[in-house]
Write a structure and sequence with these properties.
By secondary structure, this protein is mainly β. It contains one helix and eleven strands.
Length: 155
């Protein structure tokens, strides 16, 4: 079993709104961040699409300001995985053995949404307020339940 909380995320404006020339300033929060609307606003009808952030909750910071979204104040969805492995070794003689294995991943077939392919940051479109129409929509997930069997000959 493995479980972890989601990675922290900082919503950025995608531009240098403060005028400091340093880089990406934070966005301005104008509503409740977590909620519905991202998939619909982006026109995404295929699944999976998880409405993780409300696209109307953020806007560009005012010129000359840094924005009010806290660094790492939002977290991506957590991950919970159950993998099982069973094996049995049979002795044929002193020299030869046979091992039968069964391995099963995501046993409970839980959907774990992925966080933008791990590219959240200054070069990512997920967290930029105005650079993408799919802002706040998570559209990738981990694999469903998978099983495999193996027969191993040991000599």
């Amino acid at each position: 079993m493995s479980a972890r909380t989601g990675r922290p995320l900082t919503i950025v404006s995608g531009t240098n709104r403060s005028g400091t020339g340093i880089g990406q300033d934070r966005a301005k929060s104008v509503g409740i961040a977590l909620g519905h609307g991202a998939c619909t606003a982006a026109g995404i009808t295929t699944r999976p699409c998880k409405d993780w952030l409300n696209p109307l909750a953020f806007t560009q910071a005012d010129l000359g300001t840094f924005g009010n979204v806290g660094k790492g104040s939002i977290r991506f969805p957590g991950f919970y995985g159950w993998d099982v492995s069973l094996s049995k070794t049979f002795s044929i003689n002193e020299r030869w053995k046979v091992q039968l294995r069964g391995e099963f991943f995501n046993v409970f077939n839980r959907v774990n949404f992925l966080d933008d392919d791990g590219t959240v940051g200054p070069n990512s479109n997920f967290a930029k307020v105005s650079s993408t129409s799919s802002f706040g929509a998570i559209t990738t997930a981990t694999d469903p339940r998978i099983g495999q069997l193996a027969l191993k000959i040991i000599f």
